Amino acid sequence: MPPRKQIIEREVLALSKKIATREAYGETLLALGKENPNVVVLDADLSKSTKTHDFSKHYPERFFNMGIAEANMMGTGAGLAAAGKIPFCSTFAVFATGRAYDQVRNSIAYPKLNVKIAATHAGITVGEDGGSHQSIEDIAIMRALPGFTVFVPADAVETEGAIRAAAEIDGPVYIRLGRSGVPVIHDKENFKFNPGEAVKLRDGDHVTIIATGIMVSAALEAAEQLAKEGINAQVLDVHTIKPLDITAVVDAARETGAVVTAEEHSIIGGLGSAVAETLSEHYPVPLKRVGVRDTFGESGKPAELLEHYNLTASGIIEAVSKVMEKKSKK
Amino acid sequence: MNQNRLQELQDKAKTIRRDIVTMLGEAGSGHPGGSLSAADIAAALYFEVMNIKPDEPKWPERDRFVLSKGHAAPVLYAALAEKGYFDKEELKTLRKLGSKLQGHPDMKKVPGVEMSTGSLGQGLSVANGMALAGKLDKKDYRVYVLVGDGEIQEGQIWEAAMASGHYQLDNLTAFLDHNKMQIDGKVEEVMSPEPVADKWRAFGWHVIEIDGHNMEQILNAVEEAKQTKGKPTMIVSQTVKGKGVSFMEDQVGWHGKAPSEEQVAQALEELA
User: Fold this and answer.
1) DSSP class of B241
2) Could you give the percent of chain B with pLDDT greater than 70?
């Protein structure tokens, strides 16, 4: 468990600062553009929203606006990668994984090409645009594709790490990013992003909350409140959905005997499913998945939607009490 | 070009056709019609046009060829084997478990295959990416891509066509294997793409119309494409599905069916 001082600092930071992961993506991309001449960026007429715009201004010769044609963008990325470039293809998550699925599958995943898909506006916190634009199944789609690495960063600091790691990895990577501001939970100076390694943010022996993306800060909030009730919740931040840190997940289940997963994604096919599959095979314990319960999203303010779909600290606490009850009956 | 060289290339096309028929007979499944229609174009590209090194398949300066109509894999495998990328004996393993010669081309398995294809409509986008990279790196290599006339029913082809025109990819040359047949019948009847030449022109391409079985016309068109600046070139190649094997020519039924042993023997006799 980190020292009390560090926790307080983190809380202060969280309260004071909210940054959307897409913002951190744009900034990191700009830095990568300077550091690595092989980095090229493709967008499908959403560069101001996906935050690839700054890169396009600084490195116009390495930026390709492909127009509203996501399928062609993915294929073009594949061709650039086949010729030695490191393309970052950006659009909204719903289009990146839905509209262009067959291109991602057959032109990128199957030939294992070095394409990075940085998809923004994932999940229901897209907000007002509504269900047509809220991707709640992209993690499920992407983790089913052989050879893809899938990152879901929790905050701006993790995003920078994920984008830099993606550029280093030789192979296809999906990075899931959000539209809305989220608390910064990591200390930029001391945090190191290790692909495939879950981050234990909080130790505890009663229950484990395994969270990804924007639900990590909700998990920390839930753990704080649970602590006041005398429940010590371990919090695992799974920024890499694939390859999943099986050891960390199984160890947490063994140490605490009950698990709750939390994600801004359908409970089908995402982090919850990945954890359930892993624990069923290796170490079954009572488990509850917090996520979108097999339904599409709708219009509303991001915070309202999180509340509406119960993707909150209290939603997590509710699930914790259920798994704790099951655990006690075992 | 002198007549001897033309004859040599025509002989290469014939060898490729023989290998297509033989390997499909061995495999017991696959796509002869659209492989045979593209044999002359493949022979021209691999034995005259492209700057490639079979002993160094990843040579950075090489010209690239993308077979967008991936089901015509046999024509690509035959050309690559004949060129020396791998042992011709391997052609017999086509479509068999453990073979590098998958039913559709796999760039991770076969030296010389530049892109894995098979799901139609995707190769032109990939060729665009390679051409963009070539321009970015100020390299002289050229990118060639072969698309089918049924394949251009896929919307992605036109997304890509728009992009090649927009980015003025004059280092990109496409061939349309216009053999006028697809699985369910005549392209014209299933979903007409006509007028094809006008469509490509409207998307910003330089268009050349040729007989896709005339070696001299193929080579002249490629030369014209090289001289064309500021635009990609589409060589609309009128071809015959199943070309070279009498009982396969213009027969829809030979899109995706392998010849029997007797049929292989007869075809090889005709291609002798």
Assistant:
1) T
2) 100
Under 8 Å between Cβ of A100 and A174: no
Cα–Cα distance, A322 to A200 (Å, whole number)? 22
Could you say which of B108, B118, B132 has the minimum Cβ distance to residue A112?
A: B108
Q: How confident is the model at residue A5 (pLDDT cuts 50, 70, 90)?
A: low
ipTM over 0.90: yes
CB contacts, 8 Å: B108 with chain A: 111-112
Which CATH number does the domain housing residue B251 bear? Answer: 3.40.50.970
Query: For chain B, what is the domain count?
Result: 1
Assigned CATH topology for domain A15-183? Rossmann fold (3.40.50)
Q: Which residues of B touch A67 (CB under 8 A)?
A: 159, 162-163, 166
Say which amino acid occupies A56.
S
A70 has catalytic annotation: yes
- Among the listed residues A11, A23, A61, A70, the single catalytic one is A70
Q: Is the pLDDT score of A9 beyond 60?
A: no
Assign domain A192-324 to its CATH architecture.
3-Layer(aba) Sandwich (3.40)
Average pLDDT over every residue of A75-89: 98
Task: Say whether residue A65 is in contact with chain B using an 8 A CB cutoff.
Answer: no
- Kindly state whether B68 is in contact with chain A, defined as any CB-CB distance less than 8 angstroms: no
> Quick check: A154 contacting B, CB < 8 Å?
no
Residues 6+ apart with CB under 8 A from A23: A51, A156
Sorted by where each begins, the domain ranges of chain A are 15-183, 192-324
- Containing structural domain, residue B34: 3-270
